[in-house]
Amino acid sequence: MPEPIRSICLTLPAYNEEAAIEPLLIRAEQALRPEPLEWSVIVVDDGSRDATAAIVERLAAARPWLRLVRHDRNRGLGPAILTGIQSALEGPWAADRLIVCMDADMTHPPETIPLMRARADATGADVVIASRYQPGSRQHGVPLFRRTLSFGARLLFRHYLALPGVRDYTCGFRAMRASLLRRALARFGPEGLITRTGFACTDELLVHLAMVGARIEEVPFILRYDLKQGASKMNLGLTVRETLKLLRSHRTQLRAGRDGG
User: Fold this and answer.
1) What is the pTM for the complete model shown?
2) Would you say residue 209 has pLDDT above 90?
């Protein structure tokens, strides 16, 4: 079994989230404060053109657990997630840290994080996914088209990749042990761990973690698309193209990784 988790770091990649970021951070504080360990939050502002960074700076002035990291321009979701991971691997308590990544638009409830931490501690899992496809999961306000697209993607991923313990390949709400992320960075390097800039980066990261031996568990959660603030930032055409390319390449990579240890 891995070492017990001694700290939690929530990372929030954010692009033009001025309407959502303050209420989300307040909810995150309320969810994490009862946890019996050290915790912190890092917001990665990915070149926002609105007041996202200014809001986080104002809140951080009175909250030592909150940190802002800024990109000088909009680099995309993949680079923002990578920056959050690298930032969370620094500082005290980082050795036995659980690093959580979730959307900053109010669709992912931070109240699920304690459940994810408890599952990781109880099972020794390296990755805990907040899954839309576990008993007890629900989805509110998700348009039928998006539900259909997500379900189709799930079937494709299960057919091509079939990662043990995984039902939800594309939800980016995940908790990952720092020790696992260090192994993945040592193998792939910062340039290779996440190469995609769009939403396909989430399955790319998951496969790379599986290739270094990740033990994966899932917990149910309630996706609150009805609370989403702002327009969707997904480029549908780009996401579909990247996903299909990744499915083809990752199937070969994953088999090679399993065979090669």
Assistant:
1) 0.90
2) yes
